[in-house]
Amino acid sequence: MNPMSRIALAGALTLAVFASRGRAEEPPPEEAAAHGQVARYQIGTGPRSYWLFEPADPRPENAPVVVFLHGWFSVNPAFYGAWIDHLVRDGKTVVFPRYQNDVGTLPRDFLPNALHAVRDALGVLRSGRGHVRPAAGKFALIGHSAGGNLAAQLAALSADPGVGLPEVKAVTAFFPGEVLPSREPSFDRIPATTLLVVAVGQDDVVVGDRHGRRIFAEATSVPRERKRFLFYRTDRHGHPALVADHMAPTGANARLDDGEGVLRALQLGLGSVDALDRAGFWRVADATLAAGFAGGNLDEAAADAEAFVNLGYWSDGRKVAAPVLTDELDSAPRVILSNGIRVIPWDLDLRSVFDVGSSAVAR
Fold first, then answer.
1. What DSSP letter does each residue of 240-261 carry, written as one string?
2. At a CB cut-off of 8 Å and minimum separation 6, what does 50 contact?
3. What residues does 315 pair with on adjacent strands?
4. CA 152, CA 68: separation in Å to the nearest integer?
5. CA-wise closest residue to 308 among 292, 274, 334, 285
6. d(Cα 209, Cα 193) in Å, to the nearest integer?
7. Of 58, 248, 271, 360, which one is least surrounded by beta carbons within 10 A?
8. Structural domains in the chain?
9. Residue 126 contacts by C-beta under 8 Å, 6 or more apart in sequence?
10. Under 8 Å CB-to-CB from 246, ≥6 apart: which residues?
11. pLDDT at 227 > cutoff 60
12. CA 316 to chain centre
């Protein structure tokens, strides 16, 4: 089997591992939502295209901008549609860069593709022609899997004024991983003013926790009061079980389906919405973004740990296992396997497969 076929098969196997999670139901509308509609715009084609999701009914003059970065091959926004819907109905504009077309998109191009899409989207929004303008000083990044890595990389790039990104107020990287190892841009360039949350999952056998720990440890410019590390735990006490696997941060919404994606039907079927989503990932991101936009820090936002990470109770009254919240990596449990199952082995000749220079591959 040639290397490119191995990579395509690896992507399929990564998704198939989690087929037992069950099919997602259409998420109900949120009762307390500030906006009744989500306006959608698809701009461009190919790996530098993106979606804009803007609050409507009523349409605001301006709104915070959140860049939502998908995982490897998860280019269909419906895969994260429930979360996107939640963000937009709460009054935020979401930019969803595609950054990847198919297996032919080189991993070295993920970051420049995402950066191009974000800058273009900001230009479209700032024009105000038929779009909600960006609210000043309210720009944040959310990412899952490879998108979690991209979120941290974009935050690092934002330190350079020439890159053309606004000040990043908050980054939330959920279960971050990378397709091939890279040391650039260095995470110590993430600005000290950024709020940083990195989360990993107990049963994430795809990426483990090694890269999440690396992002957190190497973001040395971010002071302790402005960053937190979370270890989400699996709780099988009730039915259905709450499983902190790699696909846990996804939540499908067929209303945002654009018909794209490798194994699209399987991907949509994996995205169940449960307490890990609503009371876990969404709540943590909401609180982090709110603190960042208000100029606060995570010591303040997470001062009431019960409110920050409480996942609620089972029907028999037993409390759902809450994630471990810490600012010290040594106090967080490890994920087994710590580096995941490595569906693309790093001993593969990645330079020949992806045509990257030696400087882009860690030795």
1. S-B--STTTT----GGG--S-S
2. 42, 43, 44, 95, 96, 97, 98, 117, 118, 120, 121
3. none
4. 12
5. 285
6. 25
7. 58
8. 3-360 (3.40.50.1820)
9. 133, 134
10. 14, 18, 145, 175, 201, 204, 205, 206, 207
11. yes
12. 32
Give the residue with greater pLDDT, 347 vs 139.
139
Express each pLDDT in 89-99 by its tens digit: 999 999 999 99
3 state DSSP class of 11:
helix
Comparing CA positions, the residue from 124, 5, 119, 104 lying closest to residue 46 is: 104
Tokens of 39: 């306006």
Report residue 195: phi and psi, to 5°. Answer: -85, 130
Amino acid identity of 66? V
Quick check: 232 pLDDT over 50? yes
Residue 151: what pLDDT?
A: 98
Cα 262 → chain centroid = 19
* Per-position b or e across 179-193, b if 16+ CB within 10 A of its CB: bbebeebebebbbee
User: Strand locations in 31-154, DSSP E?
Assistant: 37-43, 50-56, 62-69, 93-97, 133-144
Mapping DSSP to helix (H, G, I), strand (E, B) and coil, where does residue 282 land?
helix
Do residues 250 and 144 lie in contact, with contact meaning Cβ atoms separated by under 8 Å? Answer: yes
Q: Which neighbouring-strand residues pair with 242? A: 235
Structure tokens at 128: 């105000």
